[in-house]
Amino acid sequence: MSVLKSKIFSSYWYRSAFYSILQRFSITVFGLINYMILVRHLTKSQVGVYALFLVVTTVFEMTKSGLLKGAHIRYMSSNEVQEEKVQIATSSLLINSLISVIFIAIILLFSGRAGDWLHTGADLGVMLRWFIPGLVGMVIFSHLEATQQSHLDFKGVFAGYFVRQVSFFLAILLQTLSGRPFTLAGIAQDLAGSVILGTIVLYIYTRKYLRHEWNYRGKWTRVLVHLPR
Predict the structure, then answer these.
(1) Are 107 and 129 within 8 A, CB to CB?
(2) DSSP 153-202
(3) What was the pLDDT predicted at 227?
């Protein structure tokens, strides 16, 4: 039995490391290639706005992930009661959605002023507003990612991220070949589309772990966000 457990443990770490390395490698390579393409077709001010847009959206997603993802994975993977797993998933998705709704509301209300504060004019607000479908897609994507990892499965996460990177690369490559000028709004739309495509692929890999049930219990909301019971 101990030998079997050792093999399973080793297999888990092997799969985790293998797909994590592939995922980070693809993100780095395509991120660099995409940036090299865009920097040749955008003005300096547009490049600055694009970089700031990436900072805002990345920091938001990393903050939300840091708050929620680890707890989701930990409690799902250590719980053997199927009903409680559904409750954990429901609470996690609800918190994830509420945080994103608040962020979207802030974008709709204050993105124009943020452009004045950060001296980007209207461009940053335009990108953020066009990326709202992507933010909605990221709610589902991050939930599916945590679900996959809580079941010690990493293939779908890699596939989802890979499709996100490749689809955005193909979108800007085709626009480059067509000779059409780039716009920040168009880039935001392409990014949103890539998130949605990646989410669809990730869902295909993750649906075998999903119960498609809604069973909310407030205690799991408090546990996931580290509030006292």
Answers:
(1) yes
(2) --HHHHHHHHHHHHHHHHHHHHHHHHTPPP-HHHHHHHHHHHHHHHHHHH
(3) 55
